[in-house]
Amino acid sequence: MSRHRNNQYRYDKTWNSHEIMRQNWNSPHTGLAVSSLNGTIALPNEITVVLRPQKIARAVVGHLLAANAVEEAKTGIVSAPFPDALRRYFLNDEEALPDNIDIYWWIYPYRRQVVIKGAGKMTMKGGGTIFGHILKFLPLGFWVLWERPAHVSLQVPTLVPDKRMGIDEVAQTSIALNSPPPLDFPEAPMDDEATLMHAESTSVGTPRKR
User: Fold this and answer.
1) How high is the pLDDT of residue 21?
2) How many domains does the chain have?
3) Fewest beta carbons less than 10 Å away: which of 74, 83, 130, 210?
4) Domain contains 24
């Protein structure tokens, strides 16, 4: 448990989403225009950020591993292929992101905080099931998928462009600002879809305004 906490502290310092945005706020590459007349901020269609994807990915995974249902917290750690793979990845700095795990991310400009573990999504027409964990809080959302069907493509970018990259390797990526996904993406099903979630593994809340 102490090893888990130590790793989480290390990775959280890197992944702090507010810090990611602050560090790139005044970058000449973002094209941010601040109006001194009315106090509003004009945002470009996208901003470019420089980050360490493997550290951010491990922080996301660590938070999801720690988000245990009540019964799981009472009975102990559950051993299954998906959580076992996540634990090995989180606890070992040298471990590559497994080939059967994909992490997607996007701008999430909403106050609602969401943690959903073990969500399954499928189409009524068949074609396989998407299974994984969801973590969302202002200003970023993450979707960690297990064994994504090869034919399924998503309209949000992957967090780790090269799963073999080192823990301290830096990558440059663009984040779209002009058209974020809806508040209830990706858990809300479309007309031809169905989503299965376990109530005890789902947590939704909104912070109180100060």
Assistant:
1) 46
2) 1
3) 210
4) yes
